[in-house]
From TrEMBL:
This is Transferase 1, rSAM/selenodomain-associated. GO terms for molecular function: transferase activity. The lineage of its organism: Bacteria, Bacillati, Cyanobacteriota, Cyanophyceae, Leptolyngbyales. Gene3D superfamilies: Spore Coat Polysaccharide Biosynthesis Protein SpsA, Chain A (3.90.550.10). InterPro entries: Nucleotide-diphossugar_trans (IPR029044), Trfase_1_rSAM/seldom-assoc (IPR018641). It comes from Phormidesmis priestleyi Ana. Keywords: Transferase. Pfam families: DUF2064. It comes from the Bacteria.
């Protein structure tokens, strides 16, 4: 697969390059990876602070908030779910969305499978942990994929809140292999994979996930802003 720009160590900043004004993005696919909010099985690192029920309720609220922020006619949204049945998902989020079960043992397996199955130009995957993510970021990411092979949204904790590919091909499956998931090494390891593959990379601005008790202030800020 040819790419538009050769890779350099100074990653292009897609957030700075692409204006917030929405641009036509054509046929694009946005994959939202979520877990059904079953108490004790979701947001487990927040259970000491919120309890199992409270952590699951936070997962539910964050997912619903993010869905309201990211639904747009400019891309096809797919919900890639785990931890629940399709019936539970539709009872929760409604029947109008497109649902796909996550397939694979690790997050890397599940991401790779989803990108393989999408088999379209310009595919982006996100989770529901980053509530500061909005449609401007997604537009910027899709626009970056017109010029680059890969786009990443770095998370403050060393992971990423967004990954996008201009087009999936088997060699790019390496981006999801031998990664220390849920650690601060995820972003650096993924960047190294992009370099090894000789692909071009753009990055968005760094945002924070809500994974740990110290991150709850982010959700409190969102709630205060929404109440105004």
């Amino acid at each position: 697969m040819a790419f538009l720009e050769t890779h350099s160590n100074a990653y292009p900043n897609a957030y700075a390059e692409v204006p917030p004004a929405a641009q036509a993005v054509g046929s694009c696919h946005l994959l939202l990876f979520i877990r059904y909010p079953r108490p004790g099985q979701t947001k487990t690192r927040l259970i000491p602070a919120l309890g199992a029920v409270g952590a699951a309720q936070l997962q539910r609220q964050m997912t619903e908030y993010l869905l309201c922020q990211i639904q747009q006619p400019d891309w096809q949204l797919q919900i890639h779910f785990t931890g629940g049945t399709r019936s539970e998902m539709t009872n929760w989020l409604g029947t109008e969305l497109m649902y796909r079960p996550q397939v694979g043992d690790t997050l890397g397996d599940r991401l790779r499978y989803a990108f393989e199955q999408a088999s379209q130009n310009r595919i982006i995957a996100i989770g529901a942990d980053c509530v500061d993510l909005n449609t401007d970021h997604i537009h910027q990411a899709f626009q970056a994929l017109t010029r680059h092979d890969v786009v990443l949204g770095p998370a403050q904790d060393g992971g990423y809140y967004l990954i996008g590919l201009r087009r999936f091909c088997p060699p790019l499956g390496a981006l999801f292999e031998d990664i220390d998931w849920s650690t601060s090494r995820v972003l650096l390891q993924t960047q190294a994979k992009v370099r090894q593959l000789g692909r071009s990379l753009a990055q968005l601005e760094t945002l924070s996930d809500i994974d740990r008790p110290q991150d709850l202030a982010i959700w409190e800020r969102i709630q205060r802003a929404s109440a105004r």
